Amino acid sequence: MRGIGRFLLLAPLCALAACVAAPPPAQPPGPEADSCNAAPFRGLVGQPRAVLDRMILPAGTRIIGPRDAVTMDYRADRMNFEIGENGRIAKIGCY
Fold first, then answer.
1. pLDDT tens string 7-19
2. Confidence class for position 34, pLDDT limits 50, 70, 90
3. DSSP the chain
4. Residue 5: pLDDT over 80
5. Do the domain assignments include residue 9?
6. Distance CA 78, CA 94 (A)
7. Looking at the predicted structure, is the pLDDT value of residue 28 above 80?
8. Of 88, 91, 86, 76, which is closest to residue 34 (Cα–Cα)?
9. What total number of domains does the chain contain?
10. Does 20 map to a domain?
11. How confident is the model over 52-78, as pLDDT tens digits?
12. Does residue 12 lie within any of the structural domains?
């Protein structure tokens, strides 16, 4: 009977331990983080997409058109230029 008594005492404790909330998943840095050195390019927002053709951009930089398919992998060191429907640079970010 001693084994059953211990079980009856420990079972609720184990069940309670399982109810502890998991920590929230880590979030990627927000847009204010400049892990891809995009700051010098921020002044290009609103400019025509064609200005990028005349520039030397860091390796791995993506120029994303309004209907382009892109991978969803997060890379903090990768600069991305998003082009709007109007053909102008709409957003520059590190992701």
1. 666 666 666 666 6
2. confident
3. -HHHHHHHHHHHHHHHHTTSPPPPPPPPP-TT--TT--GGGGGGTTSBGGGGGGS-PPTT-EEE-TT--------TT-EEEEEPTTSBEEEEEE-
4. no
5. no
6. 5
7. no
8. 76
9. 1
10. no
11. 999 999 999 999 999 999 998 999 999
12. no
Q: 34, 43, 49, 42: which is closest to 84 by C-alpha?
A: 49
Cα separation of 79 and 63, whole Å? 9
Within-domain flag for 61: yes
Structural domain of 90: 33-95
Beta bridge pairs of residue 62: 80
Residues 69, 54 contacting (CB under 8 angstroms): no
Match 């993506």 to its residue by tokens.
Answer: 62
Which residue(s) pair with 63 in the sheet?
81
> ∠ CA 67-28-60 to the nearest 5 degrees?
50
CB contact burial 60-78 (16+ within 10 A = b; e otherwise): ebeeeeeeeeeeeeeeeeb
CATH number at residue 78: 3.30.10.10
